[in-house]
Request: fold
Amino acid sequence: MTTRKLGKNGPTVSAVGLGCMGMSDFYGPSDNRESEALILAAFDRGVTFYDTADMYGVGANESLVGRALRDVRNEVVIATKFGNMRRLDGAHLGVNGRPEYVKAACDQSLKRLGVDAIDLYYQHRVDPAVPIEETVGAMAELVQAGKVKYLGLSEAGASTIRRAHAVHPITALQTELSLWTRDALGDIFDTIRELGVAFVAYSPLGRGFLTGSITKPSDFSQGDFRSVNPRMSGENFDKNRRLVEAVEAMARQKHITPAQLTLAWVLAQGPDVVPIPGTRRLKYLEDNLGAVDVDLSSDELARLTALIPEDAVAGTRYDEGGMKRLGL
Reply:
């Protein structure tokens, strides 16, 4: 496994990390034992970067990740997030960036993870009611207290990133990036590169849709939120499926899988980009990790980018409520 560095002074991690959200939430039924085994299988294959959040499974995902990595704690980088509040039944309660909440959330995450310090602590979404300087100021105090090593933001806009970085160095920005979600390319990428902030790409496989494994709506299991996602439901499903077929054809020509081709595109956006695809199955994990060995020429990269024009993608990446919480 090749490695990449997070930010100017951040930790070195595997070039492809593992997003653990789907092991506890949003993608239908899962099995904790199988998920713990998969996390360790990823470690055995060189993955050293694991992503979770306090909202995933309403805390259950942090506990899962902490248990799985307990014996290799000092050999991995664990990232978690705060800010998206949920009830025990999963209902969303809004975004909270108040300093007192930041500190309380951190203490709870430390307990669930079973660690002395969180390697990378993100604000999951920006709270429009709290100045980013106040939130990051509280996060900086957590660094000073030894509870957190590095700070990150998720789905923040360029001006917010600048203001946050002026309070305390931001090591990484985590935002969605894939062949069909390229919002961050441009102003946000220009900003983080100027500041020396790494880019952690979540949903680099378009929540699995870009892998070609989802060919009809009935492929979604019960409880899988993708079945009502704007891009994967109604007439948008068929429109976007046709775009994926073009990616599948190019992957066949290169004798690789669509997942490897799609992840290779993300990796090719720069050495400061680290994708964190999620999966619950070993065969998909191994498939994803194979992307680090895929080389794309400049011509291939341009051709692949053109296969899914941004204006051809049908539907928004979240529902109306989710979209309102992006890019502040």
Q: What stands out?
A: The chain has eleven helices and twelve strands. Residues 136 and 250 are 43 Å apart (CA to CA). The two ends are 35 Å apart (CA to CA).
